[in-house]
Every structure is written in C-alpha cells, then in structure tokens.
Design goal:
The complex is a heterodimer. Chain A is an alpha+beta fold. Chain A has 19 helices and 27 strands. In chain A, a hairpin with a 2-residue loop joins strand 1 and strand 2. Chain B folds into two domains: about 140 residues, Lyase, Ornithine Decarboxylase, Chain A, domain 1; about 250 residues, Alanine racemase (TIM Barrel, Alpha-Beta Barrel), CATH 3.20.20. Chain B contains 13 helices and 20 strands. In chain B, strands 3, 13, 14, 15, 16, 17, 18, 19 and 20 form a nine-stranded mixed sheet that branches. Chain B has an eight-stranded parallel β-barrel with strand order 4-5-6-7-8-10-11-12, surrounded by seven helices. A two-stranded antiparallel sheet of chain B has the order 1-2. Classes of the chains: A alpha+beta, B alpha/beta.
Chain lengths: ~725, ~450
C-alpha cells in the first residue's frame, strides 16, 4: 500500500515532466506549480492526471509506464485544456471525468499500436481527445461555436498588486526583440497560456533542466519564425503564436530526446520545419470544415514519421536513435558518446584469434603482398621468437615457428567447406593454381563466414557439416597454396564460397604485446601489421570476486557515508545494485572477460557511487593491463563551465572524464583512477585501490586530492 | 712492439699409422672470452675463481621459448619453477617475473618462495617429506599441496581439521611408461589402483578440494614419446574422474624431466644433438591433450615443472688452472680450483669445457681434476684442451641446474655466484668466508 502510494505520487510528478520528455522529479514539480499560475487550469490538470493514473494503477497496467508518467502526461494536457476553456463548475468536473477515461483509452490504444514499431505516441491521444471534445461541444447548444483559442482568458493567480496579467503586460518587456517575446508566448502555449510570465518561467525552468533542449527549441523556433516571416506564409492569416510551439516540441523531441543530439540531429530538426508548415497549413484547411484547430498535429505527425524513417535505415549512422529515454538530453549525448566506444563489442560476435599463444601479424588489412582489392580485409599470422620468424637459416618448413602449430575455431560455427590434400610448398615456392591451399571455411551466422587457409596437408581434423566450438582444433598451420613460407591466413566473408570478397570484422578480447612484459587489452579491434597478439585468458579467481548473485545483499561501511546496503537486482534483462538506503541504482554487466558498470542513477553521496567509479571496468586477467575508458560527463556537478559544455555538447566536447586501470602484477589489489581534463589539461584526479581477500572484494580506498584518504569496507 | 708470445710447454704426440676412426670427431677447442658482453678475464680478476656465472638473458630466452612452444599449442599452460634445481633468490625472481609459479619440496624452499614474493596460491608443495608444520603453513596460505603418500594424507586431514580450513590438493601419481628404472618412489601407483583409490578418498573428504593430478615420470628423459604415454594415462584418469564424479580437474601437472643440452657419461653423441627440443616435448604432450574430448568440454590447465632444461645452459663455472702434472701412466693431468664439491653433476655429465684466453693450436687429451685431496675429485676423465699453464682460465658449461643447490662446503669455501644482466655484473650470492663456516659451531 505504501509502495503504491509512493508510486502514485511519483507517477503524478512524472506525468508533468513527461510532457517535456523528461523524468526529472524537480522539473515535474516545477511544471506542476507553474500550471497553478492559473488555478483552474492547475486543478483541472491535476485532477485529470490523478484520475488517469489511479485508474491505470487499479487496472494493473504496466507499473513502469505509470510510474514514468507515460500514461499520465496526455491527461495533464487534456485537464489543462479543459481548465482553459471552461470556468470551474460541476459540469467541468463531469467533463474531466469523461475525458480522463477517453484519454486513457486512446493512450493505451495508441501505445499498443505504435509500440511494436518502437515509436512514441507523443501528444496524439491528447489531440484526438481535444478534437472529440470540440465536436461534442459543437453539437451541444451550451457550447456551440466555441473556438478554443478565443477562450484563453482564465483568472490568473494574483498576490496583492502583482498578477500574471499585470506582470506580463509591464512595459519592461518591450525592450526584448519580437522573436524572443514570441518564443516566450509560444512555449507557454503548451499550458494554453500565451502570457509572457508563464513563458519566461517555463524557459528558465527548461534551461535549468537542459541546456541542449533549450537551445534546440530556441533555434528551431527562430528559424521557423523567420521562414514564416520571409516567405510570407502569413497569407493564411494564421497567427504564428498558435502553431509556433510545434517547432519547439519537435526540437525537444528529436533534438535531444528520441535522437542523440548532434550537428546532424540539429540539421534535421531544421530541415523538418518546411514539412511541418505543410502539415499545419493543409490540416488547418482540412480541419476548418469541422471547425477544429490543427494544434499539435504537425509536431506529432512529423516527429513520429521521421522517427519511423530513422528506424527503417539499413545501417546505423548519425543521427542515432536513442536506445531508451534518458532523463535529460545531456545524459543522452554523454552516455551515447561514451557507450558508442565502450560497448562497441556488443555490435560484434565475440570472435577471437584462431590460434593459441602469441602470434605476430605479418600482413594486415590492405597489406603490401596479397591483401588487396576485394580480398583486402584479411590477416596473416606467424610466430616470432627473439625477433625471428624461424630458427636456423629458415630453409626448411620446420624451421618456421608457426609451422605445424594448431589452428583453432575462432568462434563456434559449422564447417561448410574444406580442402585437405594440397601439398605444402617448399620454402620460397608458391602454388598459384590452388591459391588457398588447404583451408577450412566456417559459418558463424547468416552472412558471416570465416576462412583459415594455407594449412598443412592432411592436418584438417574436421569434416564438412561438423559443428565446432570456439577453441576446437581445425588443423595445423602449413604452407600450402599461394604461400612462399608458412603462415596462417584468416579472413571474414559474407558468402559461403572460397574466394568470395572479404569483409571487415572486428575481433574480440585480445591482448597486444607492448613491451617485454606489457600488454594492451582490446575488447574489440582489428590487429594491425607487426602487432603481436594473443587471446585473453582469464583468471577464475578474479571472475569469482565479481560474480554477484541476484537477491543477495552486500553491506558497505565508510566513515564518510556510514552504512549502506546494496541489493543485487535483475530487471528487464539488466543487472544492477540498488542502494537500500538511497534508492540509487548502478547497472552492471558481467561477462567471461570482465565486469563493468553501465550507468549510475541517483544520489552521488553514497558508497555505491564510489564503488561505481572505482570499478567502472575490471578485466579478469591475471595481471592487470593498462585500460582507459571515458566516463559520461553527467557525473560532473553543475558549474558555469559545465553549462557551457552542455550547450556545445552536440557539436564538440572540451571536458573529459576518463577512467584508468593502472597496470599491476599484484593479485590482491587493483589500482584505478578517474581523471578530469579540460581542454586536455588534467584538472583533478581521484585514485582508488580495490583490495581483495581470496574470492571477494573487501575494501575500496578513495584518495582525493587535498583530502584524507577514506575507506569503504565491503562485506 | 709485438706482443710477447705465450709460453707453451713442449708436447710429444705419437702418430698412429692406422685407418682414421670413422666415429672420431674433429678435435676443436671452443674459446669463450665473454658472456653477454662481459669479459670473463675481468670477472675473474674482480671476483676471483672459482666463480659461478649466470646469464639472465639466457634464462629469459629459455623460459620464453618454452612458453612459446607450449602456449602456441595449448590454450592454458603455466610453468612452475622447480626450486630444487636452483633456488638462489635472484634466479627464482627472474622466473617469477616471467610468470612462473613455484614448485617446492621442503619447508626451506617454501619459505624461500614466499620471501621471493611468489603468490602463495601459486606455490605447489611437492615432495615426500612434508612435515606437519609445513602442511600447516601451506594450508593457511591456501597453497597447492601435492599428496605423496597415505601417511601424509592422514596428516593433512588432521591439519585441516585442526585449522578448520579447506586445503587445495592434487594427487601425485606414478606409472609405467616404459622407462627403466620405473619411477615408483613418489606418489601413488596408477596400475595397481592405489592412485584411483586415493583420488576417490580425496573426493569424499569435505575439507579437501581436488584441484589436479600430478606425475613426474623421471629425469633427463631423452624421448619425447614417453611424455605422450604419460599424458595419455593422465588424461584417461582425468576423463574417468569427469565421468564417474562429474568433476573437472583444474589442472594436469606433468612435472619435469626434460633433458638439457648436457652430454651424459657413456653417450657417444653430443647432448646438444641428442636431446629433444622444447617443441618436441610440447608437441608430444599437447597433441594428446588437444585430441582428448573431455566430457565436460573444459580443457584443464597444463602445469609443467621443468627445471634443468630452463637453467642448465644459463649457468657457467669459471675456474683457473692450478697445476699440471703427468701421471705415472703418462696421462696428462690438469688441476683446477673447482672440483666435485662445486660440480656435483660431473658425476653423470661430461661437461663441455672451453678456454677463455687465446691459446695455441696444439691440443692434448688431459684429465681435469679438482682441488680436493680426494681421489674421486675428477671433473672430466679425458678432455682435449690446449696446452695450459697455471693461472689460465677455463669455462665449464651447462652447470646451471642442481650445482648451486647440491654443492658441498667441503674443504673449500663455496664461491660467489654472479649474474650478468643488461651488460652489468651482479653478485647474487657472496663467497663464503671463515666466519660463515664456523658461525654455527659452538
């Protein structure tokens, strides 16, 4: 019951912030208060929203959607619209009740219709509801001839001599240029008020919530306004203020929320302006037969259609569609910038190197000998020891270190073709008739085949049709085919034919030798020429330290933040720690090769937050190699510089948070750090030492600049 | 001014007017004047003789070569440095730096491994003589204990009970792989069923966790194929464990025994040409492991405890000629300042000997004897060397394994041991002196 009440309150607040595609609680509360500048509207909006959320809850609709305000925000708009049209009476309450149910029906229906295409329904339920109401009113004598836009004249809040009208009509506003005044009126129109005070407060709240959202909406509005003026669109006698918010909302939806903010996203927001005008003018004409306003039709239709277009693309490129709704456009871009690189490996099957031990890349993509044209995406590997590829004088095949070494399946698959009877060439000779020599062609998935070639005669140990697992032996490295000295040729292709063109495909989880005793880890990458590479091998003990069982609770204790309990949870396919005390969540993933935190939400003054920072990614290697990854800039506190960065974020970033694992041979401790840089200059560094005892983490030491180090103990 | 020519004492050589022997090899004397760029004459002048000299570069090359040979053939391989082969700390540390674990057979070696910074979880405790105190320490540190006999197993059980701790153990196994004599002194025999019996016993003990099985089929094994047989038997045992207990072993330890490039006494052929290479051993062992279909699909880690093959050719003994005399039967006899007190291995190897300084072109067959006043002190019965004068330096090769652990403090002090690293000389064990030798006496 208590949980339900909490969820209900949260759903109401989120219903307000969801109007601006947000999940921020303070933003929702600010908007809720703002609607009460016109008390009737405020009350109507709140009642409508409460009704819808309460009904949804009692009917057991999806709690997540209720909580995030996805079912409630259209109700808020409907309530406010009703409050704007009618004065407060019992009739109005009846109307609110009727339309609440209608808007819920429409919301759930549209949600069901569009969800399967991964599209939002935006304000469509509200728009339909408003039209239905309009048509009903036109039929009823009491409401005949009501023009919604003519009725925006509710009593506003007034305290002493200050009333909203008085402030909005003060002469001070005349100093502002016309487009800005229009922007302020238009943005307020979302709450059916075109007064400047509402607009100003709303703009400021929006700016505090998101710099990117504000700038996108402002620019988009200005461009639309100038188009409207210069091209003389006003021949349609349509006041711009009635339709201007369409451009603001399209910019908010596409420019920061459903798409990842970037230069291209912004360009598309501007390129969609003419299309929106077309919808506005045509629908105004069409709807005029029924005396209906076009209202937000342009925004809803163009945004949804454009998102549909984005999802129909065959390959992913900018502008990128957001994976899921982030709390702010800033989160959206910062997480995107970081995750694009950090989780690049998720775009590829975890294919490893087709051999054991350390081999050297003697010819890489676009190599100088044979990797050219359609066959340019291939690798040749050989074994090097003491700077040489062979022992003695290299006249015998057996002198070559790689000759006769096992070649294994890089990933599980089915053997679709092989050759096993081509003689090995003597050193220096090539077989130009049977180019590929002895080979094995594996099918890993549709349109992904891998080929190992130049194997030793008679060494292929599998049959066509065999299903092999990663690491299973395929044959031995040899010198058959177009191969003057023993080497292993490895390539990927789309087609199941030997000799098909090659494709670029990244390999996962390998180490490249950097010095005598140093390795650089690559979670995904393409080995370069002369790189010495080896598959990662994992330390079971390290992996055991990070295998958290869902449902268990972990107790942490620190001098700074006291006791905190973390619960290991699993929801919708994702794992996370939830702080029992603060409710903060830290999402993580656990693979064969590493543990990593994906994101953090909630109170940053907690032990969990420092666990997140210190163990951002840990590889399960026996010796920790240096690892560097960026962290999302949303972890920063608000500062003038941060706001400037937010404004520029879609175009470039000058601040950077990076996470580093320091190389270490120690088995019971890893050292990590977080470095903040501005314009490539290091501004602050926080170091961490995570200590282990047999198979668990025991403590994290946090060393901040100019502060006493402090310890988080974990049980 | 031309350099003064070296004095060579006169030598009479009989010319035998018969057919040249078809097995006789050409006599050539190798001359080595520096190791890794370090002049041996300078070394001798600085540290005196006799002197053990180790090449760090050679040690690293050896272990890397061994790693290359195995890791390019099998996905999970680890080497454990056999402490008894050479436990001078600086040398052990080089191996640990290269990623080797430690394999120890006594409390002393265990302590050394701990002091050398080896992770206790990566110390393998072998041997037939673990005391209760040794076991207690190993259990507390969670080291790997390889059980040798039933008494030890009982002792270990009471130690785990007393400490109320788990112990990670492996069972040492001996088997018939066709070598003579069969090494059946250590561990439990496979063929008579005692190995399986012990394994089942360990599997049923709550406080013991079986991590692996271990065998060591012999020493200086000159045939790689024998390892194939041993691996097959070990793998069969691992598979039986998987099928009967649904239990996967973490590792199979095949011990050591790889031959070095030394020449065994009685061998006609030079050791360097006879011994299998690391690749041969690796191929024999891994080919069996790779072909095996383990029921669980998980391949166990392979652990190797090779000692001799990794260190023998990285160690040299620098010695100087003390005297020369001709014996009653006319045999030439050269007395040097290093004897069997320092060179235990000369009992079974014909160590290669080379000269340090430039010598004349004449060679004579000579007996090489040490400084001890004992008849057994013979380093080489017959070796062809140039005409030597007292004070001339000789370098004895392939002495890295066992000598600096099995040497005796007998009559003489044990000499310094130095290591050449990055072109610099580092004393890794000082020469003993009178105080050291008498310090424990009362």
């Amino acid at each position: 019951m208590k949980d339900n009440l909490k969820l209900f309150v949260r759903s109401i607040i989120n219903s307000y912030s969801a109007i601006f595609f947000s999940r921020s609680r303070w933003f929702g509360i600010a908007l809720l208060l703002l609607t009460f500048l016109y008390p009737t509207q405020g009350i109507c909006g709140l009642i409508c929203c409460m009704l819808v959320n309460a009904i949804s809850l009692s009917l057991n609709l999806n709690r997540y959607k209720i909580e995030t305000g996805l079912y409630g925000f259209n109700a808020v708009l409907v309530g406010i619209a009703l409050g704007a049209i009618f004065s407060f009476s019992f009739v109005l309450i009846g109307l609110i009740f009727a339309l609440s149910i209608l808007v819920l029906l429409l919301t759930v229906w549209l949600d069901g219709c569009l969800q399967k295409y991964g599209l939002p329904y935006l304000a469509l339920p509200f728009l339909l509801c408003l039209w239905i109401a309009q048509l009903v009113f036109q039929q009823t004598d009491g409401f005949a001839g009501v023009d919604i836009f003519m009725l925006v004249s509710q009593h506003s809040l007034s305290i002493g001599p200050f009333s909203v009208e008085a402030i909005s009509s003060a002469p001070i506003w005349n100093h502002l240029p016309n487009p800005i005044l229009l922007y302020l009126s238009s943005i307020g129109f979302v709450f059916f008020q075109s007064d400047l005070l509402t607009g100003l407060i709303l703009s400021i709240v929006l700016l505090c919530y998101s710099r990117i959202a504000f700038s996108a909406s402002f620019v988009s509005f200005l461009v639309a306004y100038f188009c409207f003026e210069w091209f003389g669109f006003d021949i349609f006698h349509l006041p711009f203020v009635y339709v201007g918010f369409n451009f603001i909302f399209t910019a908010l939806a596409l420019g920061g929320c459903y798409l990842v903010p970037s230069l291209k996203t912004f360009m598309w927001v501007l390129l969609l302006i003419p299309a929106q005008f077309m919808v506005i003018f045509s629908s105004t004409r069409l709807l005029s037969y029924f005396m209906l306003p076009t209202f937000s039709l342009a925004f809803c239709s163009v945004s949804i259609l454009f998102l549909y277009l984005m999802k129909r693309r065959e390959r992913v490129s900018a502008p990128y569609v957001s994976y899921f709704l982030e709390s702010t456009p800033e989160n959206n871009i910062y997480y995107h910038l970081v995750n694009k690189k950090r989780f690049e490996y998720l775009n590829y099957l975890p294919i490893s190197l087709p051999f054991m031990g350390e081999w050297k890349v003697t010819q890489a993509y676009n190599g100088q000998y044979t990797h050219k044209d359609a066959w340019c995406h291939a690798h040749d590997f050989q074994i090097e020891f003491d700077g040489k590829l062979y022992k003695d004088n290299g006249f015998m095949l057996t002198d070559y270190f790689c000759y006769g070494k096992p070649v294994v399946a890089a990933y599980s698959g089915e053997v679709v073709a092989l050759q096993n009877d081509v003689e090995d060439n003597p050193v220096g000779k090539e077989n130009k008739v049977q180019n590929w020599g002895n080979y094995v062609l594996l099918k890993h998935s549709e349109q992904l085949y891998s080929l190992v070639a130049h194997l030793k005669i008679g060494s292929v140990s599998c049959k066509v049709g065999d299903v092999v697992r990663k690491g299973d032996m395929l044959g031995l490295c040899g010198n058959s085919g177009l191969s003057p000295y023993p080497h292993l040729h490895f390539q990927f292709q789309l087609a199941p034919y030997v000799g098909a063109p090659t494709i670029e495909y990244k390999l996962s989880s390998y180490l490249s030798r950097e010095g005598d005793d140093e390795y650089k880890p690559s979670l995904v990458g393409i080995p370069q020429e002369n790189e010495v590479v080896v598959n990662m091998s994992y330390d079971m003990l390290m992996a055991a330290r990070y295998s958290f069982v869902v449902g268990t609770r972990i107790a942490s204790k620190s001098e700074r933040y006291g006791n905190e309990t973390w619960e290991v949870c699993y929801e919708y396919g994702y794992y996370f720690f939830r702080s029992v005390q603060t409710g903060a969540k830290a999402w993580f993933s656990y693979r064969e090769s590493d543990f990593c935190f994906q994101r953090y939400e909630g109170d940053v003054h907690s032990n969990l937050y420092y666990f997140f920072l210190s163990n951002y990614r840990v590889l399960f290697l026996t010796e920790q190699c240096e690892l560097k990854e960026n962290m999302p800039l949303t972890l920063t506190k608000h500062s003038p510089l941060g706001w400037l960065q937010d404004l520029c974020a879609p175009f470039f970033t000058f601040m950077n948070y990076s996470y580093q694992v320091l190389p270490s041979k120690e088995n019971h401790q890893i050292k990590t750090m977080m470095v903040k840089t501005v314009l490539n200059k290091t501004k602050a560094t926080v170091s961490f030492e995570t200590s282990y005892e047999s198979n668990r983490i025991v403590s994290i030491k946090v060393i901040e600049p100019d502060k006493e180090p402090w310890l988080i103990q974990i049980q | 001014m031309s350099e003064k020519r070296k004095y060579e004492r006169p030598l009479l050589k009989t010319i035998e007017p018969s057919m040249p022997s078809k097995t006789g090899s050409m006599t050539s004397v190798s001359q080595i004047s520096e190791i890794d760029g370090m002049s041996l004459e300078l070394l001798a002048a600085k540290e005196g003789t006799p002197l053990f000299v180790f090449s760090e570069q050679q040690i690293r090359t050896n272990i890397r070569n061994a790693k290359r040979a195995f890791s390019t053939r099998y996905p999970s391989v680890n080497f454990a440095w056999s402490y008894k082969t050479n436990y001078i700390s600086s040398i052990c540390k080089v191996f640990h730096e290269e990623g080797s674990w430690a394999e120890v057979v006594s409390g002393l070696e265990y302590q050394k491994a701990l002091n050398n910074g080896c992770d206790p979880k990566k110390i393998i405790f072998n041997g037939p003589s673990k005391t209760v105190e040794d076991l207690r320490q190993a259990v507390m540190n969670d080291s790997l204990i390889h059980i040798d006999n039933t008494h030890e197993l009982c002792r270990l059980l009471s130690v785990t009970e007393e400490l109320n701790q788990q112990a990670r153990v492996a069972v040492r196994i001996n088997m018939n792989v066709g070598t003579y004599p069969q090494w059946d002194r250590f561990g439990f025999n496979l063929e008579d069923g005692s190995a399986w019996h012990t394994i089942t016993q360990v599997m049923h003990e709550k406080r013991l966790t079986l991590t692996g099985i271990h065998c060591h089929i012999g020493t200086f094994i000159l045939s790689a194929d024998i390892y194939k047989k041993a691996t097959m038997k070990m793998v069969a045992l691992a598979c039986r464990l998987e099928s009967e207990f649904s239990f996967s072993l973490q590792y199979i330890d095949l011990g050591g025994g790889f031959a070095s490039k030394n020449t065994l006494k009685g061998s006609y052929v030079n050791g360097a040409e006879l011994t299998p290479s690391m690749d041969d051993y690796a191929e024999a062992i891994t080919s069996v492991l790779l072909k095996t279909q383990f029921p669980s699909g998980q391949r166990p880690m392979l652990i190797l405890e090779t000692g001799r093959a990794l260190i023998d050719d990285a160690g040299y003994l620098l010695t100087s000629v003390l005297n020369h005399k001709r014996l009653a039967n006319g045999v030439s006899n050269t007395v040097v300042d290093a004897g069997v007190n320092l060179l235990f291995t000369s009992f079974w190897y014909n160590h290669k000997v080379s000269v340090v300084q430039t010598s004349g072109s004449f060679v004579e067959e000579t007996r090489l004897t040490g400084p001890l006043c004992m008849n057994i002190d013979v380093i080489r019965e017959r070796v062809a060397l140039p005409i030597l004068n007292p004070g001339d330096l000789l370098l004895i090769h392939h002495v890295g394994a066992y000598n600096v652990t099995q040497w005796m403090q007998f009559i003489e002090y044990r000499p310094s041991v130095v290591m050449i690293a990055d072109g610099k000389m580092k004393v890794i064990r000082r020469r003993e002196d009178y105080d050291y030798v008498t310090s424990l006496e009362s």
